[in-house]
């Protein structure tokens, strides 16, 4: 499955990722990570369910589901009065554009730079199987270790790994993720055993679901 820029569809799961132009850093201070999450919460969270994320110095990953068309129509018209919602799916891409533009303006002001920050268009891959979803949660959390930011991904502070295991308020779909893996113990066990980097490329590009005691992915989809 190739990374693409196809229209984002309601009720569909995606791996969303982007990086700085020419690999430039998009987070250079500790406060920038929270700034990005705050912008994400304002511009994107009302229209998607977020299951996992990881922010690194020059790129980020998020695992999301676009909400139903009915929810999107209501949310968009409430957020933007008199908005034209003939093509709701395109509006979601605009929300990501608002995120990137808003963050870029704040980032540039803070570090005294000018010009674009993110590559365009941002990348998205549809998630269409349970195995893909499971492995992608692990992959997103494992990314800092893969790229050498830490020796153990559990020590990395800017991913959703520990957010799933804590009781603090969060906009993440925490319970859905833990329930998908079974419970918090199984969630941690899965992360500790899925570290075969030789399979990483194939896991990200395409998965075939193998029954392993978890609910079938379609049931997961229908339960949301």
Strands, helices and their partners?
Blueprint (H helix, E strand, L loop, with lengths): L12 E7 L10 H14 L4 E9 L2 E8 L2 H11 L8 H24 L11 E4 L3 H17 L27 H8 L2 H10 L6 H6 L11 H7 L1
Antiparallel strand pairs: 1-3, 1-4, 2-3
Helix pairs in contact: 1-3, 5-6
Based on DSSP secondary structure assignment, what is the total number of beta strands? Answer: 4
Count of domain modules: 1
The CATH architecture comes to: 2-Layer Sandwich
Shape: globular
- Topology-level CATH name: Alpha-Beta Plaits
| Backbone structural class | alpha+beta
Mean pLDDT: 83
Q: How is the biggest beta sheet arranged?
A: 4 strands, antiparallel
The H-and-E topology, N to C, reads as EHEEHHEHHHHH
CATH superfamily: Transposase IS200-like
User: What amount of the residues lies in strands?
Assistant: 5-15%
Going across the major beta sheet, what is the strand order? 2-3-1-4
Give an overview in words.
The structure is a single chain. This protein has 224 residues and is of the alpha+beta class. The chain has helices at 30-43, 69-79, 88-111, 130-146, 174-181, 184-193, 200-205, 217-223, and strands at residues 13-19, 48-56, 59-66, 123-126. The chain contains eight helices and four strands. The protein has a four-stranded antiparallel beta sheet with strand order 2-3-1-4. Strand 2 (48-56) and strand 3 (59-66) form a beta hairpin.
